[in-house]
């Protein structure tokens, strides 16, 4: 649930703090006052598109902060330069992360959503959401089967491409594979040889220097002999001064360490190669590896990868007929599984579509739409046109009266009817929506009178299960609000103020009559009373 919204330097809003509660919150104000800017502010923290032109003239940047229940806080700053700075729970974030985390918390419905309702491509998602419990698992099965079929199709096509290579290509591959297998390079072999070359090429000098180091430690009168004499002297001296035991122990440790070094130098001397033939063999092997890398590399790692590909192609070529039959069998099985999953999904959608249309008509009835009827045109698509959404196309059909012919919404529904159908749709989907906050922007456009009252009552009912925020210009809708904010444009700035008591009655009067007169105030009081406010 949205708990608070802070706006700074957005359009004409210098700064505004809006606390929100559960229930129905109303935002009203004169045309051009900036009501829609509040919706734009929410869209920004939901990861929506930002534009530097949204920044208040003269300001360097705009900022929007929103706090949701559960200590979830999101912030977005947009500078004149176009740079975004996003924070999520106090840490730097991205616009994409805001959309992923905040987007599901808010369900926003405006005039654009009304237009979406007129496009049949969106209707299938409405059905799937209305019966998510039964349709979602089948849709997941269908998508999994479709992914398996796509993988089998791609594998079969790749195999076919391999088998249709020219004879020249196949022969070139066989020659290259034979050459790589003849040389038989090993991982990092060239690096190991290069690391060993300095010792082989300079074996004589290496032996002399190693022998010199060994003699400096272990020859007669060298370091180890000197340490032995020092150790014996301190062994005698500590009889008179026990404190010298520490130095005697340190010399003992040094003796052990240097003795180990001398032993390792002796071993190193024994393993130094003075073999010109061995050196030449290493150089020849390195030249062979470098030649292989030059032809098929330029690195041995790439040579290894090529060897695997060529070996796979050779295996396929040798067993081409069998491999092709196996790939085709796998593709046939995958398609059969996909068709089975598609049938299960399609059957469940047909069952749920009738229930969905009945619920939609029931939800529309209180909205002064009369005895409207809804039905659906659910068509099976050719296999080639199946998508991740399924094997069907659905369109909602509408008839304003029981005697009217069912036809597409876009062809017969007026703007006011579309607004009410959208609200009915949201009522049907309300139980399935993940968002706890529903926002309606000008959903009452093109209507008035008793219809407006019906919409206000429907919004109030919806707010029993969700936090509902509505931007409206109709007093009959605003009267149902549990909280009411008024957006006013004063000179070059826009303010947002909560109104209660007499101030709210005055705002309802203004919305009814365009002025606050005694007659308008009396009418406003009646409207509020009839709404239960």
Structure commentary:
The protein has helices at 35-45, 95-102, 111-117, 123-130, 132-163, 167-183, 189-201, 203-218, 223-237, 245-271, 276-296, 300-318, 320-364, 409-412, 415-429, 449-462, 475-478, 501-513, 518-530, and strands at 2-10, 13-19, 24-29, 61-68, 72-79, 84-88, 91-93, 106-109, 373-380, 392-399, 407-408, 437-441, 467-471, 483-490, 493-498. With 533 residues, it is α/β, with parallel strands linked by helices. Strands 2-1-4-5-6-7 form a 6-stranded antiparallel β-sheet, with helices on one face. Strand 1 (2-10) and strand 2 form a beta hairpin. Helix 5 (132-163) runs antiparallel to helix 13 and helix 13 (320-364) packs across helix 15. The model has no long low-confidence stretch (mean pLDDT 88).
């Amino acid at each position: 649930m949205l708990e608070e919204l802070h706006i700074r330097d957005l359009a004409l809003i210098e700064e505004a703090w809006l606390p929100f509660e559960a229930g129905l919150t109303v935002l009203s104000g004169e045309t051009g006052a900036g009501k829609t800017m509040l919706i734009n502010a929410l869209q920004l923290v939901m990861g929506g598109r930002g534009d530097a032109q949204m920044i208040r003239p003269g300001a360097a940047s705009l900022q929007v902060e929103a706090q949701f229940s559960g200590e979830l806080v999101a912030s977005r700053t947009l500078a004149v330069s176009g740079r975004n700075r996003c924070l999520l729970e106090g840490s730097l974030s991205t616009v994409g992360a805001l959309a992923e985390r905040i987007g599901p918390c808010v369900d926003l419905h405006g005039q654009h959503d009304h237009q979406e309702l007129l496009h049949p491509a969106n209707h299938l998602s409405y059905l799937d959401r209305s019966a998510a419990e039964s349709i979602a698992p089948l849709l997941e099965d269908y998508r999994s089967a479709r992914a398996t079929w796509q993988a089998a199709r791609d594998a079969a096509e790749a195999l076919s491409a391999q088998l249709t290579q020219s004879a020249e290509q196949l022969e070139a591959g066989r020659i290259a594979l034979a050459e790589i297998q003849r040389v038989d390079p090993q991982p990092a072999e060239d690096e190991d040889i290069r690391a060993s070359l300095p010792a082989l090429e300079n074996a004589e000098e290496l032996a002399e220097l190693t022998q010199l180091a060994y003699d400096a430690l272990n020859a007669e009168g060298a370091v180890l002999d000197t340490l032995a004499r020092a150790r014996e002297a301190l062994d005698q001296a500590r009889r008179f001064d026990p404190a010298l035991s520490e130095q005697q122990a340190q010399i003992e440790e040094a003796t052990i360490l240097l003795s180990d070094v001398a032993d390792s130098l002796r071993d190193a001397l024994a393993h130094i190669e003075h073999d010109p033939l061995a050196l030449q063999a290493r150089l020849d092997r390195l030249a062979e590896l470098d030649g292989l890398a030059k032809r098929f590399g330029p690195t041995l790692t790439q040579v290894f990868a090529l060897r695997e590909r060529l070996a796979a192609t050779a295996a396929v070529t040798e067993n081409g007929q069998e491999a092709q039959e196996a790939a085709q069998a796998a593709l046939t099985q995958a398609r059969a599984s996909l068709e089975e999953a598609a049938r299960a999904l399609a059957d469940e959608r047909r069952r749920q579509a009738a229930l969905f249309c009945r619920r939609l008509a029931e939800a529309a009835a209180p909205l002064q739409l009369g005895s409207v009827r809804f039905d659906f045109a659910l068509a099976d698509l050719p296999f080639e046109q199946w998508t991740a959404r399924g094997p069907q196309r659905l369109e909602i059909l509408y008839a304003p009266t029981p005697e009217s012919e069912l036809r597409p919404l876009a062809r017969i529904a007026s703007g006011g009817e579309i607004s009410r159908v959208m609200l009915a749709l949201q009522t049907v989907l309300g139980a399935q929506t993940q968002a706890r906050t529903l926002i309606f922007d000008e959903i009452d456009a093109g209507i008035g009178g008793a219809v407006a009252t019906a919409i206000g009552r429907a919004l109030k009912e919806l707010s029993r299960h969700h936090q509902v925020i509505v931007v409206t210009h109709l007093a009959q809708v605003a009267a149902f609000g549990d909280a009411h904010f008024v957006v006013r444009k004063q000179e070059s700035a826009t303010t947002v103020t909560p109104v209660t008591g007499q101030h709210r009655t005055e705002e309802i009067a203004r919305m009814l009559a365009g002025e606050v007169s005694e007659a308008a105030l009396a009418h406003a009081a009646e409207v509020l009373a009839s709404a239960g406010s």
